[in-house]
Amino acid sequence: MNIFRLLGDICHLVAIIVLLLKIWKTRSCAGISGKSQILFALVYTTRYVDLFFTYVSLYNSVMKVIFLASSYATLYLIYVKFKATYDFNHDTFRIEFLLIPCVILSLLITHDYSPVELLWTFSIYLEAVAILPQLFMVSKTGEAETITSHYLFALGAYRALYIVNWIYRYYTESFIDGIAVVAGIIQTILYADFFYLYITKVLKGKDFKLPA
Amino acid sequence: LKPKFIKDEL
Fold first, then answer.
1. How many domains does chain A have?
2. Residue A212 maps to a domain
3. Closest partner CB to A64 (pick from B4, B6, B10)
4. What percent of chain A is predicted at pLDDT more than 90?
5. FRET partner for A120 with CA separation of 20 to 30 A, picked from A3, A27, A126, A127?
6. Which residues form the signal peptide (chain A) (predicted)?
């Protein structure tokens, strides 16, 4: 464990908690893409299948449980409890256009063809694009609630910090996982224009609005 | 392809 990965995991946890609290407190999931949340739940489910038979550390197991539980709780809030506030008119990204390429790519480029490894590789590729429905929804509505922009910033920052963690591990442990690094860089790049808008607008107290 | 290694990252 290193400080970059710890900060990354904390950002990730903050993002998930912020989203849960936003929906719970405002009793509304307006502006939130349920499709992205479905993809995230799928990412954690396929990545953490080893939760029950590979023990890495207490921290690792606890965080996996938290990520799994919170992602399904978020789905419950969106599609069951506050279903009436779900903005399905704007959450229209075709996630099959993400799922199918990820399945194909994980069969073409993977470290190993064991089921657990294939699921892990699929989850890495899927996580890289899981935010697209949410970013697409924000671009369609042209704006996002400030709390939603904080959620997106924390979520983007988590994988950016993981890139620093991989650089650190490369030089200190000569550890490198090309699949995770390439997918992580793509994932972070997808947030780039959002980061720019967030820093130039939200941090100056303005609303998060895309330039018309 | 690379040898397997323990996935210690989240």
1. 1
2. no
3. B10
4. 89
5. A3
6. none
The one-letter amino acid code at A52 reads: F
B2 with A177: Cβ contact below 8 A: yes
The SS3 call for residue A208 is strand
Q: pLDDT for A159-177, tens place per residue? A: 999 999 999 999 999 989 9
In a domain? residue A161? yes
| Residue A210 counted as domain residue | no
Contact criterion met (CB < 8 Å) for B1 and A111: yes
Q: Which residue range is the domain that position A189 belongs to?
A: 3-204
* CB atoms A50 and B7 under 8 Å: yes
Residue numbers in A near B1 (CB within 8 A): 110-112
> Residue B6: what pLDDT?
75
Alpha carbon distance A161, A192 (integer Å): 14
Helices and strands (H and E) in chain B: how many: 0, 0
CB contact under 8 A, B4 and A67: no
Longest dimension (CA), chain B: 22
